[in-house]
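Researcher: Structure for this, please.
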Amino acid sequence: MVYVVSRLASNLVRQWTGKAHPFLSIPLRGSSLGTVSPTSAPFAQFHSSSASTSTSCTGASPRMEGASQLRASPGSEEEHIRLLESLRAAVKATCWQLLGTESELTASKCTKFYSKQSGQDDMALFYHDGKFYSMDATCPHEGGPLELGDIEDFNGESCVMCPWHEFDFSLATGRSSMGLQQDTYEVVVVDSEVYVKSDTPYAREKPSARTADSRGPSSSAAEATASVDTTPSADTNTLSHRAVQVLNTVDLAEKVRLSRSLYSDWQSGGVTQVGRCQPPDQPPRRDDIVVLPSSKLRYKKSKSKQGVINLLHALCNIELWAVDLSWDIVARFSDFTVGDDKTPLPTEFFAEWAKVADDESKHFDLLNSRLVALGSHFGANPVHNGLWDHAHDTAEDLLGRLAVVHMVHEGRGLDVQPVTRDWLAEMDPDSLPMMVTIIEEEITHVGAGIKWFRWICEHSTPPLDGVSTFQALVRKYFFPGYLKPPFNKEARELAGFTEEWYLPLVKPKAIKK
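Model: Predicted structure, C-alpha cell format:
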C-alpha cells in the first residue's frame, strides 16, 4: 500500500491551510488517484457538511482512519470538485492543526502558541522525556504563565509547576494535586511534523489585534464614572490620605501597623471624612524584596519544610497585595459617582473596604509570623506583581475592578483554600488555625465585591443587569475571558456568588468534566 496524494487536492489544501495536511495521505490502490466519490465511506459524513461552518471535531487521526476502504476510479470534473470540497470539509472537521516540525519543537522544553480566537486560551506545547504534551497556557488559579514553569516529578508524575504559586499540573492529564483541572489536548507526530487536536486556531506569534479592548464590551462608563479631579483636601486626617500613606509605606511592620490603626481610628471616630487623595500607580516595596514580572518568577514545590515555606511566602505576597488593593479602591474611587444624578458612593462602601484592608493586614501578619517561626521571612523569595496588573487595567473602571479583582481573583482564592488547608494540615499542622480564619474572612471579602457591584449596577442610568455586566467585564479584562473549575460552590454561595454569575464563563468542555 503506497501513500499518495492528488496534486490537485494537495494544492487546494496548501492554498487553504498553507501546508499539506497528513489527513490527505490516503492509501489508494493503483498508481493514479482517479476520483474518490464523496459518497464513499467515510467521506459521506463530511460531504454533507462541506458547506457548514461547524468546527466540531471528529475522532479521526491526522492520517484518516478507514481510508483504506476508499477506491480509485475514473470520474468527471464535477466529481473531482465534489471530492475536493469533501476533502476541505474533512480536514476542517478533524480539528488537527500543524504546529511545526519535530526538530524545531524539540529544541526547547516548551513552545507557546497564541490563540487567534477571542475568548480562548493560549496553548503551551511541552516536550519532555521524548514526548509532546499540550495544555492551556494560563494557570486556572490566578492566571500564571504555565509555559514558563519548570517540569518536575511530583507524586510520581511529570508535572509543570506554575511559576507564581507552585500549583502542579500533570502533563498527561492536566490534573493538579491542589484540586484544579487544566484542559489538555492530544498531540501526534506524523512524518516528523507535530499536530495538535483543538478547535481553537493557534499562531506562533501573538496576534497584533488582540488587545484588552477587543476582548469584550466596555463597562457602563457613561453611567458610572470617577472624577479625575485629584485636588487634595486641606484636612489630611481623612480615610483617603491615610490610605495613601499605607500604600506608600515600604516597611512591612509599619505598613501593617498603619493599616490596622487606620481602621481602628475609622471605627472609633478618630477619622470621619473620606477625603480625596491620589494613590500611587503601584505601591513600592522594600529594596530587599525582589519584585519580578510574573513571567520571570520561579518556585520549587516539594513536600518538605522548604515547600511549606515557599507556599506560605506565596500566600503572604497575595495578602500584601490584597492590603494595597483594598486601600487603593478607597482612595482611587473616593469621588466616584454613578447615574445621571451623580450619586456618590455611600460611606458604608468605604467602611466595608477599610474592614477588608484590616482583615488582609491581619492575614499577612499571621502568615509572615509563621514564616518567621519556620526560620524564614517575607522577602526571602522573589515575588510577582501579577495581581496589581489587573488593578492597573481597571484604574478608571470601578465595576471592572470589583469584577476582576474582588470577585474573580478573591473567588478563586475560595476555590483553592480547602486543598491548600488540607495540604498544610498534613505538612505543617501549626498553620491550620490561621488558614481556617483566613478562609472564613475571605468569604466576606467576596461578598463585599458582589454587594457593591450590584449597588452600582442598580444605581446606573439606566440600571444594569449585574450578572451580564459582570460576565462582559470578565471577558474584557480577564484574559482569556473564561473561568475554570473546580469551584468551591459552598463558599461561593455563602458570599452570594451563585452559579449564574460564573458558570456561563466556563468553557463547555470544562463543564462536561
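Researcher: Any notable elements?
Model: Residues 153 and 342 are 57 Å apart (CA to CA). Residues 1-55, 64-73, 210-233 have pLDDT under 50 and may be disordered.
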